[in-house]
Amino acid sequence: MAKPSGHRPDLSTLSPREELRSANNEAELGIGSPGPLGRLLVRGEAGHDIVSELYPRTSEPVIDKPGRSAFNYTDFELLLKNKSVNNLIIAGVTTDVCVSSTIRDASDRGYDCLLIDDGCASSDPPQTKHTCDTVKSEGGIFGAVTSLQYIMSLIKHEFDDG
User: Fold this and answer.
1) Contact yes or no for 64/6 (Cβ under 8 A)
2) Which residues, other chains included, contact 111 with Cβ-Cβ below 8 Å and sequence gap of 6+?
3) The pTM of the whole model exceeds 0.70
4) pLDDT of 2 above 70
């Protein structure tokens, strides 16, 4: 399931606090500001689209989240429950914000989570390591962490033996 982050074009999903916070940076560009690929974090803009290599099949649901966690203000959990999914493999950006929020929410809701460390990125690279360390701290309080190469080797092994 792909899950781009985006707000409605009229920005009705953007709280005044988040509007102010998002523009609190050196460039003073926030959610809804014009950018090279359209308005930032707005549904329907080119910069909100999914990269072609990861574009979902027609039958795959797309979770369009207006905030940090994939669970908040979406039907993500409903879709997981309808398919009896209990285990999540999580990757994405930004590791220290959206990925962390999603994995914490998933853990709190009883899902077993596996974070792909080299499938995540942050605007501040050390934050990715810190987030991965937090996930696996205290015996895996929020889940486990592994590499994409390891996951791919398991999949290859499964198909070779299958």
Assistant:
1) yes
2) 80, 85, 86, 87, 88
3) yes
4) no
Residue pair 38/45 in contact (Cβ under 8 Å)? The answer is: yes
Give the pLDDT confidence score for residue 33 in this predicted structure: 95
- φ and ψ of 61, to 5 deg: -75, 150
Q: State which amino acid sits at residue 16.
A: P
Q: What does the pLDDT look like over 139-152, one tens digit per residue?
A: 999 999 999 999 99
Q: Is the pLDDT of residue 157 over 80?
A: yes
Cα–Cα distance between 106 and 143 in angstroms, integer?
Answer: 10
The torsion region of residue 134 among left (phi > 0), alpha (psi -120 to 50) and beta comes to: alpha
Nearest alpha-carbon partner for 144 in 154, 153, 133, 155: 133
What pLDDT is recorded for position 4? 56
Sheet holding 87-93, edge to edge: 87-93, 112-121, 144-146
E-assigned strands of the chain?
A: 34-35, 38-39, 87-93, 112-121, 144-146
- CA–CA separation, 112 vs 143, rounded Å? 6
Ramachandran sector of residue 60 (left: φ over 0; alpha: ψ -120 to 50; beta: rest):
beta
Closest CA to 98 of 76, 131, 75, 125: 131
